[in-house]
Amino acid sequence: MSAFAQPFKIFAFHKEAKNMFQLRQSILLFITASIWGSGFVAQSIGMDHVEPFTFTFFRTAIGGFVLIPVIWFLNKLKQRGGRIIHNGSKKDLFWGSFFCGMCLVAAESFQQFGLVYTDAGKAGFITSMYIIFVPILSIFLAKKVGLSVWIGVILSVFGLYFLCIKPDMAFSIEKGDFLIFICAIIFAVHILVIAYFVNKVDGVELACGQFFAGSFVAFFLMLIHDTITYEGLMGALPAILWVGIMSNGVAYTLQIVGQRGMNPTIATLILSLESVMAVVFGGIFLHEVMSSRELLGCALMLAAVIIAQIPPKKAKVS
């Protein structure tokens, strides 16, 4: 009897271990989403002290330096495991870092300028629309777009209307919301560029390279456009360190670790909670309060992001 029951015990053990692994990965991804959500609050606070390009330069530069020891540690693990380190050609890494860095500094700059005029919570939800823009832009790469994505697009349009357009504003949109909207489009392009180069080079090295490339461009934009003061930098320092270390360095690494062995759709759904956490942290630390109309817009946009992740075969109407 015990011999007969032994295979079932082994099966139950492996199933429990798998469930624990999935739970751990989900927690890591939720922590990632929470860190990214809190980043909107830090960015909003930082904008009280420094100008957009200054904030972008320091956050990207810090993010690059944080990932250097991560790359060293991961390479050491590969060496101990007896694996050959093959991180792609230096040429691919250079051009990947350059193009990804250009997209990154453009998106983060539009986001920083937008946060001057809009709330952190709203910015989080509008930014999350990159998840919908990615498959739409993929049309130009001859990729099909499923029904779920188009449903998500329609919902997001209604969500944007309730979130960004006030009842007495007719069909005009506020400046900050429009800048964040552009940011979301550029982030979608950024993801597609990453998707192209990440198959050629190491993902963490690409992230590190894009941070340094972006900071290089942001440095000159900062010198040309911004007014820099010691008092301003010191006032923004906690926010810059949080976004640079946590949002850029730690969260990106957690995302890579957390997505290993996870269903991509489930992983994306968890990461999309970034927008929800932006509202939560905005309410806690910035005392931002949304109207019922804006909350309806947030709910529609969150639903759009979730529905857009449904695989095409599940989205078909029978």
TrEMBL record:
Q: What is its main location?
A: membrane
Record's InterPro entries? Diverse_Substrate_Transporter, EamA_dom, EmrE-like
Could you tell me the superkingdom of the organism this chain comes from?
Bacteria
Q: Where in the cell is it found?
A: Cell membrane
Q: List each copy of the EamA domain by range.
A: 27-163, 175-307
Q: Name one Pfam family in it.
A: EamA
How is this protein annotated for GO cellular component?
plasma membrane
Keyword annotations for this protein, in alphabetical order, are: Cell membrane, Membrane, Transmembrane, Transmembrane helix
Regions that span the bilayer:
27-47, 53-74, 94-117, 123-142, 149-166, 178-199, 206-224, 236-254, 266-286, 292-310
Tell me what topology the record assigns in the membrane. Answer: Multi-pass membrane protein
Q: What is this protein called?
A: Putative membrane protein
Organism for this UniProt entry: Succinatimonas hippei (strain DSM 22608 / JCM 16073 / KCTC 15190 / YIT 12066)
